[in-house]
Amino acid sequence: MSAKADVVEERGVATAPSESVPESARRRVFSGMQPSGTPHIGNYLGAIKHWVAQQVFYDNVFCIVDLHALSLPTDPAALRQNTIGLATALLAAGIDPNQSIVFVQSDVREHAELCWLLNSVTQFGELRRMTQFKDKAGGQDEAVSAALFDYPVLQAADILLYDTELVPVGDDQRQHVELTRDIATRFNARYGETFVVPKADIKPEGARIMALDDPTAKMSKSAASQNGVISLTDDADTIRRKIRRSVTDSGSDVVSGPGKPALTNLLTIYALLGDDTVSALEERYAGKGYGAFKSDLGEAVVAALAPIQRRLGELQSEPEHVATVLATGADRARTRASAKMAQVRDRMGLGLGT
Ligand code: TYM
């Protein structure tokens, strides 16, 4: 039986508690990102931007999930470089290590351990129904790794280790958070109240940014063509070129809505990276055609990414700072995770209590 769908969908940023709320009383947030390439504006608008905007209100744990990246073939040197690159990008985008724990998943062994234990309360059929598995396996079920199949259980372990209440993610992670809720509920019923049952925190805007060259496909780090993907590190000319060449809908009106997937996506990106609403933009570009719109959108994206790229440049020359943030983050995460695992092992009757 499936736990009742429970998703927090809010507009804008959280409004409730203030910075004066002590960390111990703040709601617990956990989210993760794979170090499988440079983050793009989909990752930024669907996840990172919300993590940054909300971090003062919550007790946050943000994880670079390198163990998840192993579910597809990876080169060790590239994985390490991507891990450091993603950590640097998160800090450049505004994640503040004084507000949030930032760490690398494989530095905290409890994630892999809890994954194995949760496997024992997860059904094979549940994993077979995961749409991300079907997409990533691409019909090659016999050849893909068992890690790709088990991926959502490791994600459940990530979330459940930290008594997480809210999981801020893009729309593509909805089903994984639902499964996490089912696993937690089943574990609690079998072994006694152990895990907090988390909720996905998915904002209606930006939860699904589409590829610029194919508005029916999600913008993705692993896309075959990078023409549809604006990476956080793309230079100004590359950004302008990708937007100029982006696919548009038939007609010439700058309007969003059904039947206008390309313009809806471009207007969403413009509105979320700038200060205007989609309807204000539609009004501004009425009768002006796609050319002027794309040219201004290009400048808006360049301007929005400029401060992040500037900070990225600074942080790239301070690798010791990034390493210290990750080491401190791992220590703090390990303290929480090991306390939780002691409880879980005890509940499950594992070990001899030494
Ligand atoms: P990943 O690395 O694919 O993506 C990281 C975050 O970015 C969001 N996202 C998008 N949002 C809007 N439009 C897009 N085109 C887009 N592409 C990606 C994702 O929804 C995600 O929030 N399985 C996770 C990583 C993970 C995790 C976790 C997340 C591992 N453990 C625990 C939350 C909690 C993933 O592959 O994300």
Written account of the structure:
This protein is mainly alpha-helical. The protein has two domains: 3-202 and 319-348, Rossmann fold (3-Layer(aba) Sandwich); 210-316, Tyrosyl-Transfer RNA Synthetase (Orthogonal Bundle), CATH 1.10.240. 50% of the residues lie in helices and 9% in strands. The chain contains 13 helices and eight strands. The chain has helices spanning 41-54, 66-69, 76-92, 110-119, 124-128, 131-137, 146-160, 174-191, 236-244, 261-273, 278-284, 289-316, 319-348; strands at residues 7-8, 28-33, 59-64, 100-104, 166-168, 199-201, 210-211, 214-218. The strands form three sheets. The chain has a three-stranded parallel beta sheet with strand order 1-6-5. A three-stranded parallel beta sheet has the order 2-3-4. It has a two-stranded antiparallel sheet with strand order 7-8. The two termini are 36 Å apart. The model is unreliable at 1-5 and 10-18 (pLDDT under 50).
Question: Topology, pairings included?
Answer:
Elements (H helix, E strand, L loop, with lengths): L6 E2 L19 E6 L7 H14 L4 E6 L1 H4 L6 H17 L7 E5 L5 H10 L4 H5 L2 H7 L8 H15 L5 E3 L5 H18 L7 E3 L8 E2 L2 E5 L17 H9 L16 H13 L4 H7 L4 H28 L2 H30 L6
Parallel strand pairs: 1-6, 2-3, 3-4, 5-6
Antiparallel strand pairs: 7-8
Tryptophanyl-5'AMP binds next to strand 2, helix 1 and helix 7.
